[in-house]
Amino acid sequence: MSDTRRRVKVYTLNEDRQWDDRGTGHVSSTYVEELKGMSLLVRAESDGSLLLESKINPNTAYQKQQAKAENYDLALSFQEKAGCDEIWEKICQVQGKDPSVEVTQDLIDESEEERFEEMPETSHLIDLPTCEINKLEEIADLVTSVLSSPIRREKLALALENEGYIKKLLQLFQACENLENTEGLHHLYEIIRGILFLNKATLFEVMFSDECIMDVVGCLEYDPALAQPKRHREFLTKTAKFKEVIPITDSELRQKIHQTYRVQYIQDIILPTPSVFEENFLSTLTSFIFFNKVEIVSMLQEDEKFLSEVFAQLTDEATDDDKRRELGMDDLQVRSAATDIFSYLVEFSPSMVREFVMQEAQQSDDDILLINVVIEQMICDTDPELGGAVQLMGLLRTLIDPENMLATTNKAEKSEFLNFFYNHCMHVLTAPLLTNTSEDKCEKDNYQTAQLLALILELLTFCVEHHTYHIKNYIMNKDLLRRVLVLMNSKHTFLALCALRFMRRIIGLKDEFYNRYITKGNLFEPVINALLDNGTRYNLLNSAVIELFEFIRVEDIKSLTAHIVENFYKALESIEYVQTFKGLKTKYEQERDRQNQKLNSVPSILRSNRFRRDTKALEEDEEMWFNEDEEEEGKSVVTPIEKSKTEDDFPDSFEKFMETKKAKESEDKENLPKRTSSGGFKFTFSHSASATNGTNSTNSKSVVAQTPPTSSNGSSSKTTNLATSVTATKGSLIGLVDYPDDEEEDEEEETSPRKRPRLGS
């Protein structure tokens, strides 16, 4: 089944200000090296050709709306809202915006934009104050004030670049430090931090040069929020040591390694964690570091002498253990270095890594496959905070993300790699989860195990959102949701919330395959138990559970609503601080009334004569429907009702019809549906010899209906499947009836309700 979430039409605005349809395709967001940034790609669904390749620029105004806008020259029209929301979230992430906004940037008047573009680059777009100590406060105010305006940021960046202003500021830093001018140093911290947030690569080239970078680090030591300045320069020059396993003779390569380490230190250690609105300000800094690393790897790859020396020492038996440890072996530093290298490879080309592991699978056992080794390293991380596991989980997520898989016409990479992953690797990933929930309780509930299981659940939740039938088959075959919901009993609330989030994502798909799996397995029970055990505490767990049921109510998911009301309403009706559960019951009753009206509108001749299909046959049909392979989701999963030949064979005369009807009049009254004490319907059927004389031929027109009766004690009872049949033989009308003992079977089924701990009290 093709993914329609990302199916779009591409429109461009022509010279006459009219929208031209450029074609239909599928959109994805991925990093494009040539454009040096996250970009939107649309490939035609007809031949896979590229309809659109557009970089998500940090300062471009994007708008999310129902109709094509007049102030934009490009528009994507999504087939499904979910796909639009996903792409919008990616755009907002790049621009550092909250996804709830409708427009990412203030619209610029065209005349103002044209005036800005017409200005010569050499002109002074912003008049900078004189670079003097007594002007530092004014300079700091100026730099801080422009950050909210893309146009003013651009103007200031050009002014700083043209006047060589940064080097002058760093000379003032040296003077302030010599004079111990604390106020001036605090202003310089704000100035340099603001210049970094201008997000301009040309300024970074100046700031991170050998001549300037240590003074930039020095300015960033004097954070006004700190009582004492940090000693970052001391760490970089004295504590941090550059160790060469194999001597590097290329001076340019050595300089690039030093620069990359120091810039990474500025980003990771010195600068505070940016808010969601500031992440956009440092996107170019991230790109600067990334391309530096790419350049380092390329230079090493081209240095044949260096690589030859590395492999020669690795294979030489005379190499001592200390030397070999610097190249390999199972120690934490080497593992960290290997993780970093793997990270660079995945970031640089996830497709190349995927191709390697699929080729590896043809020659190696599952245990030693690269991805399984990565998963095992994640599972066995000894760090109490699982820092390495978090990093590895992020890399796995990148590898299994369909968005960065090549969008070709045959979609070979996506299907082949996901088949490989689910056949060879998924069992390794889920092993800790399945092991820890084998006895319907958390075997280990310590903090580190809980954190690991939370990481695994995060990755599985991602799979639910992006992998459609692969993860669906896995969940159902392994009964995975039931095992996950065991974790609702964990003493660690964050783990219980992860389990609940996994279920919420499944329900959010509004997929009836999943809904049937949930209702058949009575999988709401652990969620409701957790809600009841939580008592009157108003906390995150309470809110998350309520939100799940509110989603079912708002989206009017009928099968789940009926299951919840019929089985759990008595336990939930006392919860009145929200109207969610009363609302669910109202929805349920409205739907039941609609079904009753439909039933009452059926002619009595159809309502009076019924037969019940064999229970075993029904269960077999239901099981076959439930286990239907996803690849055939587009096909009907229920056998279509064939058009009956008897439609043309009804009695020729109205008199014969009325005679038959009168003969059955008393039988009609007995067979009308009777309302039960619980508000459902119970059907009774008469018995006649016509059921055994072979009149139940295949030439019959069948009408199938379903009602969900509820037992008086609130337990779940099986759905009664009904069928009415009308058969005509040689112009006469004969009613087919039910088999005997059906009511006895119903009573037996209703006397064994599923046991539900804590819900009966």
Automatic annotation (TrEMBL):
InterPro entries (UniProt xref): ARM-type_fold (IPR016024), EVH1_PP4R3 (IPR055236), P4R3-like_central_dom (IPR006887), PH-like_dom_sf (IPR011993), PP4R3-like (IPR051137)
Which Pfam family is one of those matched by this entry? Answer: PP4R3
Give start and end of each Serine/threonine-protein phosphatase 4 regulatory subunit 3-like central domain. 327-590
Record-level Gene Ontology MF annotations? protein phosphatase activator activity
**Residue ranges with Low complexity bias:** 707-721
Q: Where is this region: Disordered?
A: 622-761
Q: For bias kind Basic and acidic residues, which ranges apply?
A: 642-673
For bias type Acidic residues, the affected ranges are 622-633, 739-750
Could you give one GO CC term from the UniProt record? Answer: nucleoplasm
Residue ranges constituting the PP4R3 EVH1-like domain according to the UniProt record: 5-95
Family membership noted in the UniProt record: Belongs to the SMEK family.
Q: What is this protein called?
A: Serine/threonine-protein phosphatase 4 regulatory subunit 3B
Which species is this UniProt entry from?
Heterocephalus glaber (Naked mole rat)
